[in-house]
Design brief:
Blueprint: H1 5-17, H2 19-22, H3 26-50, E1 54-60, E2 63-69, H4 71-87, E3 92-99, E4 102-109, H5 116-143
Antiparallel strand pairs: 1-2, 3-4
Helix pairs in contact: 1-3
């Protein structure tokens, strides 16, 4: 059975504090305390890196919008931005992530971009307007006496 890092550090701390029991040299004790100190500094850095400094979660048009600020959020935002830019996507990108706990589909969209649904709605409105204009043109052509066929 493997030990977690916290269990290992805890065991090392006990060894360093009870050095007479373990017959540790000065260098061994120093190395153990360096590992413990490094672990604690790393944990503090991780906590600072992931701490949310400010942010809000709101709902707009039935969608959840999260605006969070922390160092890790900035790293993810930059990575996702680069992913969209590097892919050459003009509006949006769908990315599938596969992991041990299952697969997820992430939809990345530029705020000034359009989703496929937005583009389809626009195209349908455009097609409807053109059909209406073509029908009006046909009616105008048929109502013009010059376009009517003359009886034989």
């Amino acid at each position: 059975m493997s030990e977690s890092i916290d269990e290992c550090v805890s065991r090392l701390k006990c060894m360093a504090e009870e050095d007479s029991k373990w017959d540790l040299s000065y260098n061994d004790r120093k190395a153990i305390w360096m590992v413990i100190d490094s672990r604690e500094r790393l944990k503090m850095a991780c906590d600072e890196f992931t701490a949310v400094s400010e942010g809000e979660v709101s709902f707009k048009d039935g969608k959840m919008v999260a605006s969070l600020k922390s160092r890790i959020h900035l790293v993810f935002a930059e990575a996702f931005y680069d992913l969209v830019i590097d892919s050459g996507a003009k509006n949006y990108l769908e990315v599938t992530f596969q992991g041990e706990r299952g697969n997820i589909l992430m939809h990345l969209q530029r705020l000034d971009g359009e989703t496929p649904h937005n583009m389809r709605v626009k195209a349908q409105a455009w097609a409807k307007a053109w059909k209406k204009a073509a029908k009006r043109y046909r009616m105008l052509c048929l109502s013009n006496p010059m376009n009517r066929s003359k009886p034989a």
